[in-house]
Write a structure and sequence with these properties.
By secondary structure, the protein is mainly α. It is built from five helices and no strands.
Length: 111
């Protein structure tokens, strides 16, 4: 249990030490956001970015809790099964992708 807290503390330290580059990439917008003349579109991009970042953190947290359920003393039939571990890994990957999408902010690009 204590090693999980150590991992979260180390992640916090890494993020706090790299805060200035992250601050520049997260809070300062991409060219698309900076050149968008419509303030409504700029607010929409900012709102979607915050939503993606927050939901990504939520998905990551749920995946970590399911994957490390024994360390959190959550014992039931689902969390100890193999499908639960596969589901947790998929949720962690999806959460990381949501965070990446929130940082990238390419919502109006044509595909």
């Amino acid at each position: 249990m204590y090693w999980i807290l150590g991992v979260f503390f180390q992640l916090f330290l890494i993020l706090s030490l790299t805060y200035q580059p992250l601050k520049k990439s997260f809070f300062m917008s991409l060219e698309e956001f900076e050149t968008t003349p419509d303030p409504k579109a700029r607010r929409y991009i900012q709102m979607r970015s915050i939503l993606d970042f927050g939901m990504g953190l939520l998905y990551l947290g749920i995946g970590v809790v399911i994957f490390f359920s024994k360390e959190f003393h959550l014992y039931n039939d689902f969390t100890e099964s193999t499908p639960a571990k596969i589901f947790a890994v998929l949720v962690i990957i999806y959460g990381a992708w949501r965070i990446y999408r929130g940082l990238k902010k390419d919502y109006f690009k044509n595909r």
